[in-house]
Specification:
By secondary structure, this protein is of the alpha/beta class. It has one domain: Nucleotidyltransferase, domain 5, CATH 3.30.420. It is built from three helices and five strands. A five-stranded mixed β-sheet has the order 3-2-1-4-5, with helices on both faces. Strand 4, helix 2 and strand 5 form a beta-alpha-beta unit. Helix 1 runs parallel beside helix 2. The longest helix has 11 residues.
Length: 122
């Protein structure tokens, strides 16, 4: 099964990015083999709709779960509509996050963890 982890870098040792829509990278990993693809987020500098566009990208990569620090209302709704489980409050490095997920240490998020426009620069 494929899961997507928001990341500050392009490998499994990178830190989890606390932002979803404007994270640096999406690491799409197979939970069994740890084979992964690092996808540079094309929506970092988007004026609006970054959460929705990032959600669509994750859905295109056929991920079933997203691990991230935070997710806004538009991204959450789009991910839910695509049948993708969302887990927020994730930190540490990507590989640790995958291992914790495999051990069942995370609970699915029931709603957005931040307001819209959270990831925008001030």
């Amino acid at each position: 099964m494929k899961i997507c982890i928001t990341s500050q870098g392009d490998n499994l040792n990178s830190e989890v990015d606390p932002r979803f829509g404007r994270c640096q990278y999406f690491i799409v990993a197979d939970v069994e083999t740890l084979e992964f693809e690092a996808v540079k987020n094309p929506n970092i500098d988007t004026m609006g709709g970054a959460g929705i566009q990032s959600s669509q990208l994750v859905a295109e990569k056929q991920a079933k779960v997203v691990l991230t620090g935070n997710v806004g209302p538009n991204a959450f709704q789009t991910l839910q509509a695509a049948g993708i489980e969302v887990i927020t409050g994730v930190s540490g490095n990507v590989k640790e996050a995958v291992e914790k997920y495999k051990k069942g240490e995370f609970k699915p998020t029931q709603g957005p963890s931040v307001s819209s426009k959270f990831g925008l620069p001030k």
